[in-house]
Amino acid sequence: MAKTPKIALIGNPNAGKSSLFNSLTGLNQKTGNFPGVTMEKLTGIWELEPKRPVEILDLPGIYSIYPKSIDEELVINILGDPTHPDFPDMAIVVADASNLKRNLLLFSQVRDLGIPTVLALNMIDVAENEGYVINSIKLARELNVEVAEVNAKKGIGLNGLKLAVVKTLANRYASNDALPLPVAEDLIQEVQAKFGDGETYRSLLWLMEHDRMKMFSTQQRETFDSIQNKHHFSSKKYQSEETVKRYEQITEVVDRCVINLNRQWDAAPVRTWTDRLDKFFLHPVGGYVFFLAILFVMFQAIFTWATYPMDAIDGGVAMLNDWLKGVLPDSALTALLTDGLIAGIGGVLIFIPQIAFLFLFISLLEETGYMSRVMFIMDKLMRRFGLNGKSVVPLISGVACAVPAIMSTRSIGSWKDRLITILVTPLMSCSARLPIYTVLIALVVPENKALFGLFNLQGVALFGLYLLGFFMALVSAWVMKVILKAKEKSYFIMELPTYKGPRFKHVALTIWNSVNAFVFEAGKIIVAISIVLWVLASYGPGDKIAQSEARVRQENPTLQGVKLQNKISAEKLENSYAGHFGHFVEPVIRPLGYDWKIGIALITSFAAREVFVGTMSTIYSMGGEVDDENATIKNRMRAEINPLTGKPMYDAALGFSLLIFYAFAMQCMSTLATTYRETKSWKYPLIQFGYMTALAYLSAFAVYQLLS
Fold this sequence. Notes:
This is Ferrous iron transport protein B. By secondary structure, this protein is of the alpha/beta class. A 7-stranded mixed sheet has the order 2-3-4-1-5-6-8, with helices on both faces. The longest helix is centred in the middle third of the chain and has 42 residues, at 286-327.
């Protein structure tokens, strides 16, 4: 069977590379890690021709093949190593047509590595709006490659790109024979003699970047050093001079192939909609106000719009459980199916609407180009708390998930700044906290409308929790800055993309991938733990479970029907293995207002925060005390009575105490594992777990005591 060709998508940040990837692959995508690297990669299948698929690899955005951060190192380790599993058969370099000169630097480097290359000119419409007309046919002749004009957002020009790729794969031409800046011929010959004959520019890349390339051993790196010393070769000097030389050549090409209508007609620069909008969105005061307003509306919508499908799912799962209990024989297998498996699945499905709405808004902000403005305006605020300007990206990404957010800190050059960012990023309220927030807010915050009936108080509470996590991350970062004595200055440089209308196919794809990841990644954990919990809650040491029913009947001779069964279920749960675990931790959590049932949920949710809801669903489906058989998890928890006070268990004091605990607690094994992989030490995950747990406990204690 013929090998499927592999094509790498390469480009500057914000050049539209990811949009083109989505347009080419659609739903034929999968996520994984690069071989030997704990960094997420996206691959997909593109039907180049009938029955001729090619594999598309979306590489991280870079400005040059001379890396300044870990994610850029990843790219040169692939492009510079023909033996790498992800080494491409060809490359598509995606260039922003409105900023062609800068984008062609990376293109020229990739082409000179000897990789067959197609240049995809993206955002031609933006370039034309700014007064630039590009002669792509002439540009193709000048660069000696195939050039295709595309609009990745709208999926325009993909057929032309296909033809360019087919021709390039067939001809396999790419390399520019001459180096952009000559070096001593015997220098290259010595490198090729000792490390293998290949493309001249690739050999030069090995010489300059051997310390960053994993393909070389320590002994080989020492050999490279000796070659540099022998020939008095300075990598930094050559890279600097080479970049200047490349830009001189690129400028000549661009001048011949691009017409600037503004300059030709001596016209004033075109004032675009991006310029007009940025005056407001990047305003030192108005920018922050608008961002907070967007967040406020977003969380209002998440609570308001998602309520109806969530209630329908919650009620549907309860009805399915009741129906199964009615038609299946009363047995341990039926109990496992209904109270274990179905309850666990219900704990996953109910939050799909809110996860979908959250990523709908995040995707819209990214698609329109506004998210980059958020990072820009937040940079100044971040620096006051000791964070690097590039810390904005991980912190905002942490609203979705802390794992990829922590991995994205690789773009931060300073080790101390990167370490602080890693340690505080999990304080951002991620999507895993959303299910917990939803259930608890619904229990303790009324659905009343505020401010002339425009805003839902539950949405306001959700907005407040997200803000609380953000400000606590800033405060924690400031404390760590003082402790670590981080004084190194850093710079945050990014290109702001133009504003664009969202392509709803891409938005839908983002929502689908996010929901899919939640259901099949977090969902597997939730369902598995729900089943294990059912076993622990159904069996106990000795004959305590068997004695529970007799004891309840003896102590409550007047109870009958549903109330008697509820009492028996609660007693059995308390004497089960799970109940013993809960009672074991109860003395520690009692000052927070928590009982042994909540203790069980705290233990199980150490695997992943969202397991809390699945655990409570299982516990209250087995031991809840309600008369309505078709009761949802919210109703069961709302009906729970505190045995010490005789009042509802989930009052404001307990509810807000739990909310604060989960807002700050480090209860995510995946995040701790990622911190270990990124820092190469168990010390930092332990510090992260320790300070976040202490912060969560003390804050929850203060809230409970204050509101009690």
